[in-house]
Amino acid sequence: MISASRLRSSIQNINRASANSVKAFLSRKRLSSTKDLGTSAANSLQNEARSDMKSWIPLTNLELQRITTQSLIHEVAEQQRELAAKVVPWFLKNMPASYFRRIPENIRSQHVKAIAAIHDLMHSDLSLKIETKSNDGSHTITYIASQTKSGILYTQIQGLTCPLNCELSSVQVFSSLDGELALNIFTFQTLNAGKKIATADDMSVVKAYLNDLKAGKFVGQPEAPIYDDSIYSDDAMDFFRQRIRPDYAANCDPRRFLLMRKMYEQVRNNDAAMVQCELISPQSADALAAGGAQNAWITIASANVIPEVLLRLCSAIISSRQLHINRANLDSIDNPESSSPELNGNVTMLRLLVSANKEGIDLNPEGEFMSILRRDLKRAKWLDNETTDLGLHKFPSLGLDRAEVITALCSMIHGPLYKQNSQAYASIKSIIQLINSNPKIIGMAEEIASLFLQRFNPAGSISDEVFAAKYKELYEKIQVLHFDAAEVALTKMLEVVQSVLRTNFFSEDRYALSMRVKPTIMVSNPAAVMPFGVFFIHGRHFNAFHCRFRDIARGGLRIVTPQNSDQFALESSRQFDEAYSLSYAQQLKNKDIPEGGAKGVILVNTPSIEVNKRFFAMRKAVKGFADSMLDLIVKDSITNLVDLYGKEELIYLGPDEQIIPSDIDWITQRAGERGYPIPAAFMSSKKDAGFNHKEFGVTSEGIVVYLDVALRQALHINPKTDNFTIKLTGGPDGDVAGNLIRILFRDYRDTCKVVGIADGFGVAEDPNGLDPDELLRLVAESLPISSYSKDKLSATGVAMSANSDEGAIRRNSMHFRVKSDAFIPAGGRPNTINSDNWHLFLDENKKPSSPLIVEGANIFITADARTKLFENGKVAIVKDSSANKCGVITSSCEVAASMLLSKEEFMSIKQELVQDVLHNLRNLARLEGELLFREYKNYPGQLPQFSERISFAIAKVTDAITDALADVQPEDALFKELLPLIRDNLPKKLADVAGDRISERFPVQYQRNAIASNLASMIVYKEGIHLVESQPDKRIAERAFLYYRADKAIQSVVATFQSNNDVNGTDESSKQAAVIVDVLKRGGARTLLNIF
Fold first, then answer.
1. Of 599, 620, 727, 1022, which one is the catalytic site residue?
2. What digits encode the pLDDT tens for the residues 916-934?
3. Catalytic: 599?
């Protein structure tokens, strides 16, 4: 490719070379005439020659250069005139009419000059790139290529670099009628720059056509749009006009304009895409401009996509199908309704005039070829680069369908394979490379993908018997490969296909590829606790797992964004383990609520994405995950799938790391659009009709209660009166850490000193305590610890950014080094303290830097590290499943409120609800905290073990009751008897307002789960773990029901006793009456049942 500047330089070099050649020639002639003569003779001859020169002969080099330059200028000017005489008529004849309609005269003049400059090299596969920048900040890149061969547009797009802080706003692609020249124009608009808006005059042609349409002038013409007042009325058209550019309105064919107006309306309220194909008449101007061959217009409307990405993917797909793009127009149209505070909404309109490069390709829109092409273009923006690379470039015979299945399977099995051989299966890319390393292996992978498609094609799924036979045949072929690494990988891929229970592959409007699989495919250890269900989602730039341990479960959704390819490979190898570990921890902490534990982990391949596009990719990954999950759990969607599971599923999500408010809003809205039974319950922590965790500090409220109990019980510190020190990980701008700082200084300002904080941006340490007001300022302004003002430090304090080597070292070691009474991990990656580094928490005398740890962050410390810290340093650790459980309790309250209240009702009582929720949280945290230390004090063992045993005990009773109620219906006596348990455990205001709606609004299975969890936690918190652990499994549910009745009887006795006796007085009789009430409450029900 030759740039304009290089071309100018080349011409200048030619001029200089010509002049130098003339001088060199004359010089050589002079030297040859004096050769072999002596110096004196030579000088004499030269003087004689000089005296004989005429006046028109140049006497000096300067005169020679001037004359030569004039001669060359004259020659070049003559050539340019001759060239212009050829090029201009050719240009006017061969450039299509749409070019002259769309391109201003001053730009056309520039193009003519550039074409003239390369005209003599038109058959040399030459490409000229011209870059210009306008006063408004927009950039235009024009490619002029001397050939219009297939794929040239795609090649240009591949090399296209978006200018900094700009976005592609329009593309115009033209080919000369004789096929000799391609002229492609890419315009980039400055981000957030004001755009010119079309005027009513710009819309005049469209308006005239629309009036004719309304008047019925085009009746009987099938290509004419059908009038629809909702999108073609004056108001609706004016609404659209205010979002488009003048040239788009003025130059677009009015019929196509109205068709695109309709497509815009169809996609603008979601992230969908629409594709329309239209075969054009061979005698039409468009067809003649494209060479008279069979041609078709393909129009794509795609919402909220990066325009250059859509253009790149669509051109790649079209080129791979042996189609040539003769013309193209791309316009990015604003869509404020789909904007978020972080990203502007848009709809990209891409129109492509295509023709076939070879015979036999049928462009009929109803034919199979175009149907497949239309489907692939519709999904283009959701396809991962590995999929398009495999299915379009490396092995086009695969097609995108099988390529997507193969890349999804390779991504899913990375974790299990990595555990078997970390070198052979170091990354997803290495597995894909292994699979396509030779034709035999990729051939088997293709057969596996085909088997997957045959099994789940709703148009004609193969039977279980046929599947089993094909599975056996494939399995046997794989086993004789004699290539161990490939054999293991292919076998695992085949096993995954067998494990799939549902997939959305054939859902027409899917965002990503999702699968509901049997958990055993990911958890091969028979000793491990098996999850209830596992989902896997594979999309553009991301993979995701969702793991849950109960049928009805809830848990957070987080995004993981590695900084480099090595870290991405490592995170991918342990992605499912992270989802499993976090969901299992969630299962333990969800003991007080109806929902079991779950977790979703989205891993974004950030190293493969340009830095300025990573945030956008994260938001798209969240949408791809959520919508693809809905494909597999919404009833209307499931009915159109091959369903090997056969049961309804309810999933409840919550926000976790890197999930932002706009994600929450979108997920909730999308659940409603898709028909999820209770869309407001699908995602918790909503800003309005929800309890935002960060706003109300719900997780941190519970952590502080556990800290209070632990300080008193483990360290014998009364935090209200005794000074104590804290260090924590997680920044002041974070949910848990920021609220923890706020609550600590709210409740213990006179006694608490925070001596160390480390987050992703830096570290601050001060043995005299970090300044409370400065920390609260950072919390209020949502700033990281690197923003801590150094003038607030004492003489021995330090505050550093992690950007420096010393700052990074201090940040990464703060939790080990800094001494404090308690350490609260309130942020950080899983397994930060592990079997390899736990000893750093102890000094040379095995004294811990903090004798107490309250785990505010999930799985910050591994199980073996906890054991080592207790055994070697006697560290008291309050496990995460206890310490940070209040966040999930809050989310469960939000789910209940979403089912019982309208949004308006919720908002009218929200403040009272918040206070009731916080009251319940603190109460449940204190109940478990006191039981935890009571068991720890009275029986041998470690605190984390007792934390787990409490969870196991509650789960044991919950599961037993749930199973016992499986066939009990709401109208049955037992169900009615237990139903008050649900109301009694709701926040008071919610129970008062909507407690009578429970039977009507709660799904029956949710009611069963709520009854079970409420009764189970009541029994364990009152009686302890040993009563439950000693019960035979078959008798647990029966005895739980008896306990409930006995407890109600004791409550009645206590109420009667209190009405007849003063239990609040100071006299001896009142004190004895109070003791009797306490004894009855503590052990009355158990004694009444005669269970010891």
1. 599
2. 999 999 999 999 999 999 9
3. yes
